[in-house]
Amino acid sequence: MSVNKFFLNTVFKSIKNGSLRVGVIAVSIMLGACVCAAFVNVYLDIDSKVSRELKTYGANMIFSPKNMSEVDNTSQIKFEEMKAQIPADKLIAASGYLFTQANIGPTNAIIMGVEYSSLKKVKPFLDLRGGAMINVDFDEKNVLIGTDLAKQAGFKVGDEIDLRAIGANKGEKVKIKGIIATGDKEDALLITSLGLAQKISNLTDRINYAEAVVLGNFDEISELGKKLSNDEILAKPVAKISKSEGLILEKIKLLMALVSLVILLITSMCVNTTLSAILLSRSKEIALLRAIGASKKNILNLFGFETFSIAFMSAFLGAILGYFLAQALGYAIFNSGIDFRVLSIPIAMILSLVFATIAAFYPIKRALQNEMAQTLRGE
């Protein structure tokens, strides 16, 4: 029998005869690689996933008159032109706002004109307390009313009110379709379509300011704002929201890296403990191989190749399974799938093999230091 054939036969028999303990090593490395690959897939996809998720917390870009000290409104058409320059895959929602005072029945109130279709996206914390939302931008027959204003004026869902400009004799008949609450200024406002607010205030094609929800980090949105800004309208990020997004992303990435490290350390301990037990049970076999002429290098190659074979196959299988774990995490956390990243397989395998090698080094080194004669005598 050739040396290579004897070598491979010994490795095969060792794996076969130690199936239970070898299985523990294989499963440990496979789970470590699986979690590592899953986290790499999620990590590489997390910017877009978390960014989109955080955009549900409201507008992160504002458009306002450049010289607010001189004028408090600007052109809606120019805002629409600016909005059209934002890439379609980046823009989630946008709405202009116009505020004006008006008579609503027997009392005065401030009305806020908005684009109804974007209202829930730019103001996601808006809570419907009664009735229904309005989703058509040009609906000038229905309005929403804040809880505080509804209580103060005694209005309820379904009431028809006469809405007119201060001092005007003629107005518009509108119906209260819903009562909303945000815990902010909107609770004291009457919310109408932007077109109706412009008609009441006699400010056609004017808005006080606008908000948008745009995908991207603080730097990207800042750069976009500089590009969009002109002599009349200033576009800039809402720093509190955009900067917070970046901090949250960094903390999530750090947490994922730490969890991966802990999993790999646990994997290493399992490999170390199990391999130590395997080598202890095979100490006589090692001594016998030494007695028939095998050098320490031959023994090291034998057990190193055996451990590497198990680790390599387990790491590869774990890296493949990691993609499916990433999908489960994606749907559980973001309610959407995670893109497959080929890079996750080599990264997960390399990390798993490095930790497995470190874990296997000391047990193998200790086994080679045993005295051959004493081991064969059973001492």
Note down, in words, how this protein is organized.
The protein has 379 residues and is α+β, with helices and mostly antiparallel strands. Helix content is 56%, strand content 19%. The chain has helices spanning 3-17, 19-54, 76-84, 116-122, 147-153, 194-201, 218-228, 239-281, 283-291, 296-333, 344-368, 372-376, and strands spanning 61-65, 74-75, 91-104, 107-114, 127-131, 142-146, 160-165, 172-181, 189-193, 206-207, 209-214, 233-237. A 6-stranded mixed barrel has the order 3-4-9-6-8-7, surrounded by 4 helices. Helix 2 (19-54) packs antiparallel against helix 8 (239-281), helix 2 (19-54) runs parallel beside helix 10 (296-333) and helix 10 packs antiparallel against helix 11 (344-368). The model has no long low-confidence stretch (mean pLDDT 80).
Explain briefly what this protein structure is.
By secondary structure, this protein is an alpha+beta fold. Helices cover 56% and strands 19% of the residues. A hairpin with a 6-residue loop joins strand 7 and strand 8 (172-181).
Low-pLDDT segments, ≥5 res: none
Tally of contiguous helical segments: 12
The radius of gyration is 34 Å
The fraction of residues assigned to DSSP E strands is 15-25%
Shape: elongated
Tell me about the biggest sheet?
6 strands, mixed, barrel
Quaternary structure type: single chain
- The helix/strand class is alpha+beta
* Largest sheet: spatial strand order: 3-4-9-6-8-7
Fraction of residues in H or I helices? 55-70%
Q: What is the residue-averaged pLDDT?
A: 80
Determine the N-to-C terminus distance. Answer: 32 Å
Order of helices and strands: HHEEHEEHEEHEEEHEEHEHHHHH
Q: Got a strand count?
A: 12
